[in-house]
From TrEMBL, chain A:
Residues 94-150 are annotated as: Disordered. It comes from Streptomyces oryzae. It holds the Pfam family Oxidored_q2. NDH-1 is composed of 14 different subunits. Subunits NuoA, H, J, K, L, M, N constitute the membrane sector of the complex. This is NADH-quinone oxidoreductase subunit K. Keywords: Cell membrane, Membrane, NAD, Oxidoreductase, Quinone, Translocase, Transmembrane, Transmembrane helix, Transport.
UniProtKB/TrEMBL annotation, chain B:
It comes from Streptomyces oryzae. Its main location: membrane. The keyword Transmembrane applies. InterPro entries: NADH_UbQ/plastoQ_OxRdtase_su6 (IPR001457), Nuo/plastoQ_OxRdtase_6_NuoJ (IPR042106). This is NADH-quinone oxidoreductase subunit J. The chain crosses the membrane at residues 24-42, 49-67, 73-99, 111-132, 161-182. The lineage of its organism: Bacteria, Bacillati, Actinomycetota, Actinomycetes, Kitasatosporales. It is found in: Cell membrane. Keywords: Cell membrane, Membrane, NAD, Quinone, Transmembrane, Transmembrane helix.
UniProtKB/TrEMBL annotation, chain C:
Residues 475-513 are annotated as: Disordered. It comes from Streptomyces oryzae. This is NADH-quinone oxidoreductase subunit L. It is found in: Endomembrane system; Membrane. Residues 134-409 form the NADH:quinone oxidoreductase/Mrp antiporter transmembrane domain. Keywords: Membrane, Oxidoreductase, Transmembrane, Transmembrane helix.
Length: 150, 191, 694
């Protein structure tokens, strides 16, 4: 089999993932695109391992490690996205713009004011939290209390 | 797998115009995978995107099989299709992702993203094709278990890659703890 | 002590006195007066001693090398040259400076800045001594420039008034304008003759054996003349001197009598062989001197300020000396310098007493108030003597020196000029005629303005209607050069505020209300001390030729009769006109008693304005320079600063543009990052394939 087939497929998959990372607005969709990119790399690793007939099987072992790390990454990433969603009421990446250069007119509904204002107003996602973590009825007071405690 | 690969080694490096059966299957599955990936990054329905991701990851698992990496293929199916996609679906639900078409799935810089990724694709494809135009993978195993079987992979993993493997387990543990801490923080603060 | 040591002490003593006065002036006010007077007095005594020892014999010369110049043959030397001219002029400088210092202790006794004033006068004197004694052109130039800066400070002594500030700046700039060509001329002369020593230069030029000739005598002479014209207030550069009256009166006496203006004449006298080498330079000098003497005499006839009358008179008399030099008669020139120094110092100091007494500078007001002769009898008598000397009435000193000048001119005009030194070219006949005619005309005018000054100052009758405006002058729109300059007495005795001049005039006019200002005794004594040489110095024409070049200074009969005749005519004419005009003024209060108005007729307006030379300079020099300055300011502010500000604005704009990229959108950052790495990768691939593949 020509090595060009898996290589080109990996390249195309990678670029599709790249597009997804750059273009998607929802953070979870971005994470999916990241998975696509990781898989493209894995495909390359496997193809070259087979081609080189490595006695240590470095390519396949590395693929396994990558898969494990990707699992860990998706876990942490989803946790972060959830936290952001809980704090901001949104998981849109292009609204998380606290690091932008200030001085311009406030753009976006979640970047206009100060952090405190935003963190005090997460009321919209309280029922989502309640659905996910059933029975936590004291969630209403929101993350401000936790922030204060921290 | 090796029965499917009935191509004689002595045939040398045949051209692209006379593909073997494995190649034809590989290309077909590759097209399906690519299409699923494209739909994943392009659809406006978030849950559909996750489901199309399953198709794409499954297609990649088939490609692993075609490349005689059996163990990797099953791990791919188990971890990605089994757990990662499930996690993503949970994430979508927890963040109140809208069911159905959401008009603002793509951000404003999608055209820039398109240009960047197309340019990257052009460059990389050019380079890769130019570099590996005549490289041939001999996927036919002479004897014994295939290079991608669980026996061979397990031997390599536990003989040569034990230390990284164990370190990886620590990493997974840390990720587990981190995810729990991140998710549970609010409750801990309240109690 | 040797004569050389004594002579070296003469400039050193006032310089040290000036230094000590400047250092101690603030801390020990009690020492200021002795420090001002004693070194100058000692220097004057030493100058007399040097003169007695030298005795008009062979010149005493001494030199020590001061600084190398890079050219071995042209060292700068601290050299002394004591000949008859030098020692006598030094005596004049010493005596006048001592008188001025003594007079100043009275005149400026309440001035808060007396210490620095006295120190600067001492420095001024020291610089003039240096110029007089020096045998080295560069050292002479040092003294010359020190005098320039001292005159700047002293003229600007009352710097609270804008007139004084403007006058000091004008004096400085105008004299510097002449000093630039002067410096070039000195360097050209030294490079042609191969020495900075004046004595060497003169010897080489006059020696009949060497046959040395200057290559560009006219050029060098004209360059030197520019500096002389600036310093001695000759025609193109004379306009600073009338304005310099803004300084205190003793400073005017010093500048006009002994230092500064005398330096130019003295310099030409020392270097006369350089000038006689070029007939063109002599003719130019003669024409300039003739124009200057007649023009400034006319202007003197029209001035109202007593000090400005005297200033124009000084310019006129200096032109006499320059005219004597133009006919190559330096003995007459220095003789007139000596007598003029004596009587002009007396005139200024007496005028100071008058101003002190009357409380005003204006002759018109003095004429209206009247009775000044009774209130200041010493000033009256001494000033009468000095004015007679100025007008060259026979027994007084001015007569003899002026006759010497005219006799020299006559000799030159009729071609029987005596060569003042060996190898000198005879003065051109045209120069002789020019000087002779102008001298006679000026003698008439001098008598006229001297008589006018005397009549107005001392023979005025108290007007019945003191408020009469100067209607005729006002009708003629006389442009006042220094409009309503406050009388010096106001400045010398700082009151609660400067009284407006018109109020001062009223008070002066009201003789009952006017407090009597008795002049301090020291001022009066000084006047009489100076009156003595004004009376008898002219008689030294019998002995002076021994000190000078040996040419006779005896008056000739023709010129004596002519000059005395025109002097009498001028005086009598003025008297008659004054009788007429004062009678008219008594009848019609709006008429002016000033005889100058009637005498000059339509010319009066122009003469009062100094023949509009200042306006001409303003139009031709000041305004172009100002517009050039505006252009430079525009270029600096708008163009050069534009680049600087543009650099700042550009980087700020760039910063604003770059700041816009900080959107906070992670995806934009990532896109840019990937684009960049992609470009780098392409470059790397192309470079590798381009180098290795092809």
């Amino acid at each position: 089999m020509h090595l060009a087939y898996p290589a080109v497929l990996a390249v195309l998959l990678f670029c599709v993932g790249l597009y997804g990372v750059l273009a998607r607005r929802n953070a979870i969709l971005v994470l999916m695109a990241v998975e696509l990119m990781l898989n493209a790399v894995n495909l390359n690793l496997v193809a070259f391992d087979v081609w080189l007939r490595d006695t240590l099987h470095a390519g396949q072992a590395l693929t396994l490690f990558t898969i494990a790390i990707a699992a860990a990454e998706i876990g942490i990433g989803l946790a972060i996205v959830l936290l952001v969603h809980r704090n901001r009421g949104s998981s849109d990446i292009d609204r998380l713009r606290d690091l932008r250069e200030s001085g311009g007119p406030p753009g976006g509904d979640s970047s206009g004011g100060s952090r405190d204002e935003k963190s005090v107003a997460p009321a919209t996602d309280n029922d989502a939290d309640n659905d996910a973590e059933s029975g936590s009825d004291q969630q209403v007071q929101g993350p401000a209390a936790g922030r204060r405690h921290a | 797998m090796s029965v499917l690969l009935a191509q004689p080694l002595a045939a040398g490096h045949p051209g692209f115009l006379s593909p073997s059966g494995v190649e034809i299957v590989f290309v077909l599955v590759g097209i399906v995978t690519l299409g699923a990936a494209l739909v994943t990054v392009a659809t406006r329905q978030l849950v559909h995107a996750a489901l199309w991701l399953v198709v794409a990851l499954g297609g990649i698992a088939v490609e692993y099989l075609l490349l005689t990496a059996e163990f990797i293929a099953w791990v791919q199916v188990l971890i990605y299709v089994g757990s990662v996609v499930v996690l993503i679906l949970f994430g979508l639900m927890l963040t109140k992702a809208p069911i159905g078409r959401s008009p603002d799935a793509d951000s404003g810089n999608r055209w820039i993203a398109l240009a960047v990724s197309l340019a990257a694709a052009t460059t990389l494809v050019t380079v890769v094709v130019d570099a590996f135009r005549s490289t041939w993978i001999n996927v036919q195993e002479p004897t014994g278990p295939g290079s991608g079987s669980s026996e061979v992979t397990g031997t390599a993993l536990f003989r040569h890659w034990v230390l990284p493997f164990e370190v990886l387990s620590v990493l997974l543990l840390a990720a587990l703890v981190g995810a729990i801490v991140l998710s549970k923080r609010n409750k801990a603060g309240e109690r | 002590m040797s004569t050389t040591t004594l002579a070296a002490l003469v400039p050193a003593l006032p310089a040290l006195g000036a230094l000590a006065g400047l250092l101690l002036g603030r801390r020990a006010p009690g020492f200021v007066r002795p420090l001002a007077v004693l070194p100058t007095l000692a220097a004057a005594a030493l100058a007399v001693a040097v003169a007695v020892r030298q005795g008009g014999g062979t010149p005493v010369r001494a030199a020590t090398e001061l600084a190398p110049t890079g050219n071995e043959a042209l060292p700068i030397q601290l050299a002394l040259n004591l000949d008859g001219f030098a020692v006598l002029v030094a005596v004049l400088v010493g005596v006048v400076a001592t008188c001025v210092q003594l007079y100043s202790t009275g005149y400026l006794r309440d001035d808060p800045r007396y210490a620095s004033y006295a120190a600067l006068v001492s420095l001024f004197t020291a610089a003039m001594f240096l110029v007089v004694y020096s045998d080295d052109l560069i050292v002479l130039l040092v003294g010359w420039e020190v005098m320039g800066i001292c005159s700047y400070f002293l003229v600007g002594h009352y710097w609270e008034t804008p007139a004084a500030r403007a006058a000091s700046l004008k004096a400085f700039l105008v004299t510097k304008l002449g000093d630039v060509p002067f410096l070039i001329g000195i360097l050209a002369l030294a490079s042609e003759t191969g020495s900075f020593r004046i004595s060497t230069v003169v010897t080489r030029l006059t020696s009949s054996l060497s046959g040395f000739e200057l290559t560009h005598p006219t050029l060098i002479a004209l360059l030197l003349l520019a500096g002389v014209a600036g310093k001695s207030a000759q025609l193109p550069l004379h306009s600073w001197l009338p304005d310099a009256m803004a300084g205190p009166t003793p400073v005017s006496a010093l500048i006009h009598a002994a230092t500064m203006v005398a330096a130019g004449i003295y310099f030409v006298a020392r270097l006369l062989p350089v000038f006689t080498a070029s007939a063109a330079a002599l003719v130019v000098l003669a024409v300039l001197a003739a124009l200057t003497m007649t023009g400034s005499a006319l202007a003197a006839l029209a001035q109202d300020d007593i000090k400005r009358v005297l200033a124009y008179s000084t310019i006129s008399q200096l032109a006499y000396m320059a005219a004597a030099l133009a006919v190559a008669d330096r003995g007459a020139a220095v003789f007139h310098l000596l007598t003029h120094g004596a009587f002009k110092a007396l005139l200024f100091l007496a005028a100071g007493v008058l101003i002190h007494t009357a409380g005003t500078n204006s002759l018109t007001v003095m004429a209206r108030s009247g009775g000044i002769a009774k209130r200041a009898p010493d000033a009256f008598w001494t000033m009468t003597i000095a004015l007679l000397a100025l007008a060259a009435v026979p027994p007084f000193s001015g007569f003899f020196s002026k006759e010497a000048v005219l006799a020299g001119a006559e000799h030159a005009a009729f071609g029987n000029a005596h060569a003042p030194f060996e190898g000198a070219h005879a003065a051109p006949v045209s120069a002789g005629w020019i000087v002779l005619v102008a001298g006679l005309v000026t003698a008439l005018l001098t008598a006229a303005y001297a008589a006018r000054l005397w009549l107005l100052a001392f023979r005025g009758t108290p007007a019945v209607a003191p408020l009469a405006v100067r209607s005729e002058k006002a009708a003629e729109h006389v442009p006042e050069q220094v409009p309503q300059q406050a009388p010096e007495t106001e400045l010398a005795h700082p009151g609660p505020a400067h009284r407006p001049a018109h109020r001062a005039e009223q008070e002066a006019a009201d003789s009952d209300a006017l407090a009597h200002h008795p002049a301090p005794a020291v001022m009066t004594v000084v006047l009489w001390v100076l009156a003595l040489p004004s009376l008898v110095l002219g008689l030294t024409f019998l002995v002076l030729p021994d000190w000078f070049d040996g040419a006779s200074l005896t008056p000739t009969l023709t010129t004596s009769v002519l000059a005395t005749g025109v002097t009498l005519v001028g005086g009598l004419l003025t008297y008659a006109t004054w009788r007429h005009s004062s009678a008219l003024a008594a009848l019609h209060p709006e008429h002016d008693a000033d005889p100058g108005v009637l005498l000059l007729g339509p010319l009066h307006r122009h003469a009062a304005a100094g023949f509009h030379l200042d306006a001409l300079y303003s139009a031709t020099v000041v305004r172009p320079v100002r517009s050039a300055a505006r252009l430079v300011r525009f270029l600096d502010r708008e163009v050069v600063d534009g680049y600087v500000a543009g650099a700042g604005r550009g980087s700020r704009l760039l910063g604003a543009a770059v700041r816009r990229a900080q959107t906070g959108n992670v995806q934009t950052y990532l896109g840019a990052l990937l684009t960049g790495s992609l470009v780098l990768a392409v470059i790397a691939v192309v470079a590798v394939t381009g180098n290795g593949g092809a």
